[in-house]
Specification:
The chain is 47% helix and 15% strand. By secondary structure, it is α/β, with parallel strands linked by helices. It has a single domain, classed as Undecaprenyl pyrophosphate synthetase (3-Layer(aba) Sandwich). Strands 3-4-2-1-5-6 form a six-stranded parallel β-sheet, with helices on both faces.
Length: 243
C-alpha cells in the first residue's frame, strides 16, 4: 500500500473512532461506460477499459475506508442483448483484468466472491474465475463480490424455491438461500451516470439500503466521488421502518 493510501486508511479509522458511520457493505451499479466513450468520440470498448480503471480506484478506496464488502454489478443477465462485438470486448476485458489483477488482490488481501451464472461465459473464463476465487479465499481485508450474468429476480425465485423445498418459506429462509448469504446486510447502493433505477440488481438485499444516484459516469468515478458517497451515507438517519 502506498503512503498516501496508508494515510487514507488511518483517516478512515479515525473517522470510525470518532463516531462517523462507515457502511459495512457497499454495492455499485457501474453505469455510463458507453456514454463516456461516445462523448469522446471513442469506441465503447474504450469506455469499458476506462471503467476497469475506475474499478481499481474504487476497490482501493473501499479498502482504505474500512469497507468490509464491495459488490459490483459487472454484467447483468440482460446484457446478453448487447451486440456480439461488445460482448466479446467485455469478455476480453474480464479475462485481462482477472489475469492482471489477481496478484494485486492477493497482495491487498482482497477475497473475490462471484454471484450470478458466470459459467455462461465459457469454460476458459470459468476456469480463470474459479482459480481467482480459490487463490483469494483466505484473504481477510475486504471481500469483492462481482455480479456476472446476474439477475436479482432469478436469484429470488431460486432462493424461494429452495426454501419451499425445505418446507419453510419465510423471509429468513429466502435470505439464507440468496447468493449473498453470509455477507453483511447491504448498507449503501450507488448508481452512476444519472440513471435512477435498480435494473434487477440486489432487489431483496436493497430493502433497507440507502440509495445514492450520482450523475458521474462510471469511468470518471474516483476516490473523491467514493468519499463523497460515504459522507452522504454518514449524514443520513437510517430508520429501518421506524419513525
Amino acid at each position: 500500500m502506498t503512503s498516501s493510501n496508508a494515510a487514507a486508511a488511518q483517516g478512515a479509522a479515525a473517522l470510525q473512532g470518532g463516531g462517523v458511520t462507515v457502511p459495512r457493505h457497499v454495492a455499485i451499479i457501474m453505469d455510463g461506460n458507453g456514454r463516456w466513450a461516445k462523448q469522446r468520440g471513442l469506441p465503447r470498448a474504450a469506455g469499458h477499459k476506462a471503467g476497469a480503471e475506475a474499478v481499481r480506484r474504487t476497490l482501493q478506496a473501499a479498502a482504505d475506508a474500512g469497507i468490509e464488502v464491495l459488490t459490483l454489478y459487472a454484467f447483468s443477465s440482460e446484457n446478453w442483448r448487447r451486440s456480439d462485438e461488445e460482448i466479446s470486448d467485455l469478455k476480453g476485458l474480464m479475462r485481462f483484468y482477472v489475469e492482471k489483477e489477481l496478484n494485486r488482490l492477493i497482495h491487498e488481501r482482497v477475497r473475490l466472491r462471484l454471484i450470478g451464472d458466470y459459467r455462461a461465459f465459457g469454460a476458459e473464463m470459468t476456469r480463470l474465475l474459479d482459480r481467482a476465487v480459490e487463490k483469494t479465499a483466505k484473504n481477510d481485508r475486504l471481500t469483492l463480490v462481482v455480479a456476472l450474468n446476474y439477475g436479482s429476480r432469478q436469484e429470488i425465485a431460486s432462493a424461494a424455491a429452495k426454501a419451499a423445498s425445505a418446507g419453510e418459506v419465510t423471509p429468513e429462509a429466502i435470505g439464507g438461500n440468496l447468493e449473498t448469504a453470509g455477507l453483511p446486510e447491504l448498507d449503501l447502493l450507488i448508481r452512476t451516470s444519472g440513471e435512477v433505477r435498480l435494473s434487477n440488481f440486489l432487489l431483496w438485499q436493497a430493502a433497507y439500503a440507502e440509495l445514492l444516484f450520482t450523475p458521474v459516469l462510471w469511468p470518471d468515478f474516483d476516490e473523491m466521488c467514493f468519499a463523497d458517497a460515504l459522507d452522504q451515507f454518514a449524514a443520513r438517519q437510517r430508520r429501518f421502518g421506524g419513525r
